[in-house]
């Protein structure tokens, strides 16, 4: 059973305010009690909410949990992705290192004309520094892993599919690419980042919903 956005909102209101009357729910959500009657009936019959006469509605965490997980699995990456850290391919390795540590990330995405052309990690930059090269003048393109050897996900991929790819490639993050027809580097417009840190936060939200 799929829940509507209004039904999800009702569940959240009950969770935060239980026990709460139908009239109070209607007031908080901005609809009349009669408008919400079918939603409340459905949520009660599904045991997502527990209704007690003269007391109000209660949140049933053990029944709601499967719906939260299912909803998250099917959510598109574009709805949860974080902001990517990007530099141009001509940026010096030294400036890239500075940006990486200021932003506190494990990898930086490299672009040309707003399209993904590569990725550089802390390990890549460390190797370059150890090699005692002129990092002040050398462009980061000399140290990056180039497309098509960079794994990525599309913005309309599901969170479940993106997580599987993250584990499959054993990386900390994946660039998120806007969906586009065709293949090749020129179509890889980067719009976000999908990472293990992001997954951890989403998992924490599920745990909080069970408390």
CATH superfamily of the largest domain: CBS-domain
Reported by name, the CATH topology of the largest domain is CBS-domain
The residue-averaged pLDDT reads: 85
Give the SSE order as H and E letters.
Answer: HHHEEHEHEEHEEHEEH
Distance between the termini: 23 Å
Report the CATH C-level class of the largest domain: Alpha Beta
Low-confidence segments, given as residue ranges, are: none
The number of distinct helices, counting runs of at least 4 residues, comes to 8
The percent of residues in helical segments reads 40-55%
Largest sheet: 4 strands, mixed
User: In order across it, which strands form the biggest sheet?
Assistant: 3-4-5-6
Q: Cα-atom Rg, whole angstroms?
A: 23 Å
**CATH architecture annotation of the largest domain:** Roll
Q: In percent, how much strand structure appears in the residues?
A: 15-25%
**Globular, elongated, flat, extended or rod-shaped: what is the shape?**
elongated
The total count of strands amounts to 9
Structural class: alpha/beta
Please, how many domains? 2
């Amino acid at each position: 059973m799929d829940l509507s956005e209004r039904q999800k909102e009702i569940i959240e209101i009950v969770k935060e305010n239980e026990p709460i009357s139908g009239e109070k729910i209607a007031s908080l959500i901005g609809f009349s009690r009669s408008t919400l009657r079918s939603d409340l009936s459905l949520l009660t019959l599904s045991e997502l909410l527990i209704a007690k006469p003269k007391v109000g509605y209660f949140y049933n965490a053990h029944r709601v949990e499967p719906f939260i997980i299912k909803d998250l699995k099917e959510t598109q990456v574009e709805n949860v992705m974080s902001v990517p850290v990007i530099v141009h391919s001509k940026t010096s390795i030294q400036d890239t290192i500075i940006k990486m540590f200021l932003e506190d990330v494990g990898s930086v995405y490299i672009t040309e004309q707003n399209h993904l052309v590569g990725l550089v990690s802390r390990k890549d930059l460390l190797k370059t520094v150890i090699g005692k090269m002129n990092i002040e003048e050398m462009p980061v393109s000399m140290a990056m892993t180039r497309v098509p050897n960079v794994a990525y996900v599309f913005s309309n991929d599901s969170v479940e599919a993106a997580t599987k790819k993250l584990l499959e490639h054993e990386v900390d993050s994946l660039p998120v690419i806007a969906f586009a027809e065709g293949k090749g580097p020129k179509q890889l417009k980067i719009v976000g980042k999908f990472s293990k840190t992001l997954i951890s936060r989403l998992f924490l939200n599920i745990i909080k919903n069970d408390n």
